[in-house]
Amino acid sequence: MVALTARDNEPLSGAPVEETAILRITRNPALTHPLRAQSALVLSGTTDALPDGFGAILTAIPPAANWDSKLRVIRLSPQLEYLNDGDVIKITPRYQIRAIFRKNARTNSLLVTERCNSFCVMCSQPPRDINDSYIVDDLMRAIPLFDRGAREIGITGGEPTLIGQSLFALIERLKNYLPETGVHILSNGRNFKNIELAQSIARIRHPDLMIGIPLYSDVASIHDFVVQADGAFDETLAGILNLKRCGVRVEIRVVIHRETYKRLPALARFIARNLLFVDHVALMGLELMGFAKSNLDAIWIDPVDYQPQLREATEWLAANRMRVSIYNHQLCLLDPAIRRFAVKSISDWKNEYMPECEGCELKRDCGGFFSSAKLRYSSHIRPQRADVPATAS
User: Fold this and answer.
1) Strand order in 97-101's β-sheet?
2) What is the pLDDT of residues 202-239, one digit of tens each?
3) H or E segment at 311?
4) Which residues pair with 342 in a beta bridge?
5) How far is the C-alpha of 267 from the C-alpha of 15, rounded, in Å?
6) What's the pTM value of the predicted model, to 2 decimals?
7) Is 204 left (phi over 0), alpha (psi -120 to 50) or beta?
8) Which fold is adopted by the domain 5-98?
9) Does residue 314 contact residue 341 with C-beta atoms inside 8 Å?
């Protein structure tokens, strides 16, 4: 698991950070001078003199007596010593450092707001009714520093559509600065019931954009209960239809738990019959954070116990030539017939493996666990041999 934020950084010298600084990491002390002001130099060894012109100098080594006291030098938390060339960070006036973008990560997710118009019973990022517009301001400054080779950028929340016009500006900026990078937006889809919003997204003409929208049941009352919002089922379907009408790619996401697993096959049939035109369906395991942790006893179910429903749903979607994937599941728990649909989907900054995984020959290909899974996980975890099919019991 990789830490994205550290609060135990200490100022060693230089003027205080009076406003948020957005900087790109470099380990090259000879970086050309025009690039230094927007860069943070990470020192990995001793040096007699510090190069000037950098937005900040981050170090884990003790300062030398002859270092220029006018240069902004910050002792870097051990948690962030992994920072490397091309990463982008945010430094607050309290010297909290957060990694906004990591060049070598499979994907980077940008949280754009904590506000949401749903209240999902298993939400890993519980909504907060606050003014957090500063987040987008920071991201607009950061995007020009992102590496152009990034494969995908995620936009998440909260509910991203609640930031209004700022969402369009953010997508436009990603398109302009990272034209070959895919953009994946996580949205509950409800606000796209307004065709104008879907049209505004489409008009940007991003070459590789997809919106992931949750649909938890083929029965309106069940979906509405999960998201804790009356009418959400109808709004979500209207949003999906409007987006596809405007030519925007859509992924349907289904989080599996005690309230959703029984009708999983029925939901798959509903999707295949009514939403065959969506671009991807992701059947997802539970992350035990936020409301999922609070409601654990009500929604937790061992993945082994819903394998029949998961297999039927997966095979039905695949038989109808829909692109389907299984996210956030361990290979040893999956029915062998559907293991090929499993994807390593958990971000590395919250990905772990349990002691039971030691010696497993499939560990390299297995998605592992969310770090929060230590709270509760299946008792059926077993190391596997690569040449022996797994069992789901």
Assistant:
1) 5-6, 97-101, 88-91, 21-26, 39-43, 56-59, 73-75, 10-13
2) 999 999 999 999 999 999 999 999 999 999 999 999 99
3) helix 307-319
4) 326
5) 58
6) 0.92
7) alpha
8) Glucose Oxidase; domain 1 (3.50.30)
9) yes
Half-sphere exposure of 94 (CA within 13 A, CB side): 6
**CA of 166: how far to CAs of 63, 78, 163, 197, in Å?**
42, 35, 6, 12
212: tokens are 């992931």
Structural fold of domain 108-375: TIM Barrel (3.20.20)
Residue with tokens 């040449």: 387
Domains 5-98 and 108-375 share a fold: no
Q: Which residues pair with residue 283 across a beta bridge?
A: 254, 326
- Tokens 């938390």 belong to 77
d(Cα 212, Cα 251) in Å, to the nearest integer?
A: 4
The ranges of the chain with pLDDT < 70 are 1, 48, 64-68, 388-393
Alpha-carbon distance of 368 to 345, in angstroms, equals 9
Helices 220-227 and 232-245: crossing angle, nearest 10°?
100
d(CA 333, CA 379): 10
What residues does each domain of the chain span?
Answer: 5-98, 108-375
